[in-house]
Amino acid sequence: MQDVYIVGIGIHPFGRTDGVSGLQQGANAARAAMADAGLEWPNMQFGFGGSDSAGNADTIVNELGLTGLPFINVKNGCATGGSALIGSWQAIASGAHDVGIAIGFDKHPRGAFNALPTEYSLPEWYGEAGFMVTTQFFAMKLQRYMALHGITATSLGRVAEKAFRNAVHAAHAWRRSPVDIDTILNAQMISDPLTKYMFCSPAEGGVALVLASAKKARELGRDQVRIKAAVVRTRPPGSFEVFAPCMDIKRGGAPTLLASKAAFEMAGIGPQDIDLAQLQDTESGAEIMHMAENGFCADGDQEEWLANGWTNIDGRLPVNTDGGCLACGEPIGASGLRQVYENALQLRGLGGGRQVPGDPRTAYSHVYGAPGISGVTILER
């Protein structure tokens, strides 16, 4: 397997862009990524891309040009973008290609995601009971976690407050105004214990990454950011994940535990070697739970971490430096790639007001979604 580098990054702002389709937002991001790499669409030898609500990703060739390149559609829940990246990484690592592109985009309608039980092999009663509404599922799972490990509502508020504070400095973020913790904690309750500021929202946006072999990256003068690991895992027995119809009395594993372990083994490093991380924060509790599931702390230690500001930009392990899903929103096809975009930007030292100090050299991204899929990517400068 040969080394793979990220040689170009591009993003279309997240949020709402009236009059611009999701496909066009993806094409916008692709053009920006190729320009960043000093390349053009005819130079791309392949493409992987995904979208949940904005059409087939392969039709982006109508926007970018009919060059005949192979383009693979990816649809893997919230791990769609991460899966597109893994396909691209494998195409180059295997030696089959020298340069290609991973693209993710989406344009969700306003309101909650509208998943159907039959799409996930679930009986109709599951939807009738309200469990297809993910806000209720996440709140229920979080309540249990808080009771078991002593997590407080104040910690949930601190996660959201940090997200909006970081997003002030992220031009691509949707919500870029700071919100104080008292406002967050006293806002309208959506699903106890989560208030409206503790949830992300369906959104729009596009992200593209150009990948290249080591030889090609050197030719381009872009051999700074290397992909050390890229993995996706599904749920093991006994895990309790989004759209799970029941929970085993004896808790099993979790897809994030599997993906994180495999990624660290592939990279040959451990959690202590990571300088910054982007963790799936569908809601405030998700970031807290994923801190432990990805190996950065023990269950319950998040209280101390958040109270001491250890996940802030200048903390021990900066988490979600651009505001994460809470501030950026979640266009499913693009969200996982946004995390990697942010990490690549940070490793280049181009984070501006949200730049992690201390010359970071390693960056970790984790995406999680229904029905229990986790993807992890580790970058190294």
Automatic annotation (TrEMBL):
Pfam families: Thiolase_C_1 (PF22691). SUPFAM superfamilies: Thiolase-like (SSF53901). Gene3D superfamilies: 3.40.47.10. GO terms for molecular function: acetyl-CoA C-acyltransferase activity. It comes from the Bacteria. InterPro entries: Thiolase (IPR002155), Thiolase-like (IPR016039), Thiolase_C_2 (IPR055140). Residues 259-377 form the Thiolase C-terminal domain. This is Acetyl-CoA acetyltransferase. The lineage of its organism: Bacteria, Pseudomonadati, Pseudomonadota, Alphaproteobacteria, Sphingomonadales.
